[in-house]
Amino acid sequence: MTQYWFKPRRYGAGANPVTWQGWAVIVAFPVVAAVVLLAIFAVTPPIVAFTLYAILIPAAMVAFFSFLNKKTDGDWRFRWGGDKPDKV
Questions:
Q1: pLDDT digit of tens for each residue in the chain (88 aa)?
Q2: CA dist 14 to 10, 50, 74, 77, 84, Å?
Q3: Dist. CA 37–CA 42, nearest whole Å
Q4: N or C: which end of the chain has fewer CB within 10 A?
Q5: Cβ contact 25:5 at 8 Å
Q6: Is 38 exposed, middle or buried (0-12, 13-18, 19+ CB in 10 A)?
Q7: Which candidate, 8, 5, 30, places its Cα nearest to that of 20?
Q8: pTM for the full model?
Q9: Per DSSP, what are the bridge partners of residue 75?
Q10: Three-class SS state of 79
Q11: Where exactly are the structural domains of the chain?
């Protein structure tokens, strides 16, 4: 059985972390992304660095949100508060 790290938000769209693993992922992603981007900008010419930046950031965000969606207990959709998320 999979333990979910996030639960759907009651208002709006998205999910909130509910375990320490979820919070760790939320904190680690921007830290790792910043370190990788600083390393890229430190060792490559600016035009190559900006090109890699333009490719890697969207790819990393798609992978990150895909992972979050898989670790969420329920579906991601807009909620108005009246409909409760699954298994809250």
A1: 468 889 888 888 888 899 999 999 999 999 998 898 888 888 888 888 888 888 988 999 999 999 998 888 888 888 887 665 555 5
A2: 9, 29, 10, 7, 14
A3: 8
A4: N
A5: yes
A6: exposed
A7: 5
A8: 0.73
A9: none
A10: strand
A11: 6-72
